[in-house]
Amino acid sequence: MKNNNKQTTLWLLTYSVNAVIIYLAGILFPQNVAIGNTSVESWASILVTALLVTVVLMLVEPSLKTLKVKVSNSAHIGIIYGIVNILALWVLARGANWTGFGITSLWVAVILGLVLNLAQFVIWKDTMVKRK
Q: Where are the domains of the chain?
């Protein structure tokens, strides 16, 4: 039960921080990150994008286990999660009509994905490592 609480806390924090970072990206860099459109309100765009990125991240570890991929150290898993963040943002931005989230280029996805990855690492370290 204790591990379930940690996992729930981890994913709720990850979702919240993803939402804040996506919101700040839209506020600080409106020329590169579009939040909302004529079909999707800004707040809904932030919540949906953050939720979908978080759900995709939740699927990484089970997918690796299913594919029987062994990751030996945290640097490799960090790279995998970074790539997943970048790809998730890029794909979500391609569906901007439905998500309300848009970016100007792949480089914006790379930078935003790396920022999300760093924040997620800090959350993971604080939630999963310190509280053992």
A: 2-126
